[in-house]
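Data card: per-record layout.
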Amino acid sequence: MTLLHPRARLHHLRSRDGHEVDVVIDLGGGQVIAIEIKASSAPSARDAHHLVWLRDQLGEGFRAGVVFHTGPMPFDLDDRIWALPISALWTARTE
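The structure for this 95-residue chain is written out next.
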């Protein structure tokens, strides 16, 4: 079974002007999802500023940005950028 075709590629991004994104998932066709991982239970918009920069650089090619955090609640940080509890990676919802 193929989940993505072509397969997604994972990257780390560090720009010459100091922007850094922990994980960039290249979905192909100019589409990306970007991830920051923070050891904070209450991330702020400042924690997403590199994702905002990347979104603004890529325009519609930026599909989504996620700031994973140690807190319990998901919430919006900016357009197409969300804060999600890192526990969402291994917790299944049963609703």
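Known properties of this structure: Residues 9-89 form one domain. The beta strands are 9-14, 20-28, 31-37, 62-69, 75-78, 81-85.

See the next section for split statistics.
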